[in-house]
Amino acid sequence: MAIRVLLVDDQPLLRTGFRMILEAEQDLAVVGEAGDGLQALDQVRALQPDVVLMDIRMPRMDGVEATRQISGPGRDGPAKVLVLTTFDLDEYVVEALRAGASGFLLKDAPADELVQAIRVVAAGEAMLAPSITRRLLDKYAGHLPSGDEPVPDTLHTLTDREVEVLKLVARGLSNAEIAADLFVSETTVKTHVGHVLTKLGLRDRVQAAVYAYESGLVRPGAQ
């Protein structure tokens, strides 16, 4: 079955461009559009999309609050949120990830990256672009703890190896890169990541990365 996509952006021209790209793919179907966060909430309830392509800066309700109401804590709906950002301007991206977004994509990303990102998010994975994620977390380090705070009790539920994996996820490494770094198989890494998410009550790798910074396990700028 085709992946059902809702386009949310306050610029009609951008929505038209995204629609043209996505409707050229046999496994993707654009089921609706919205020009702001409030319209997005209505469309999500009415259309039940699999993925919401969400802009951040919009009138009436921005993408962060809309994301929180669609995919935030306690929400168990099927829709995953993929946030669109211009990076240089959007200081709210970290907040969007905290709010429950499954990842983010630059607005000027190539068409094939947009398509792949939607497929990844629809499959329940996180669209965690390593270099961009690291730059975002470092750039907006002021939003995050200094690392001097007490380590949360939940972190103590992880094994030493799971802590290692969490640190590498937070630094933007892919499963393949983590496997190479730890001299284990990708399947083993996926198992460890799954255990980390379950034990910490996190939705995906993006939230795991944010948790690692917020808990002080990884500090912005650390290697």
Automatic annotation (TrEMBL):
Residues of the Response regulatory domain: 4-122
InterPro entries: CheY-like_superfamily, NreC/VraR/RcsB-like_REC, Sig_transdc_resp-reg_C-effctor, Sig_transdc_resp-reg_receiver, Tscrpt_reg_LuxR_C, WalR-like
TM region positions: none
Organism expressing this protein natively: Streptomyces sp. R35
Domain of life of the source: Bacteria
Gene3D superfamilies attached to this UniProt entry: 3.40.50.2300
Any Pfam family the entry gives: Response_reg
UniProt keyword terms in alphabetical order: DNA-binding, Phosphoprotein, Transcription, Transcription regulation
Gene Ontology BP, a term: phosphorelay signal transduction system
Residues bearing PTM 4-aspartylphosphate: 55
Protein name: Response regulator
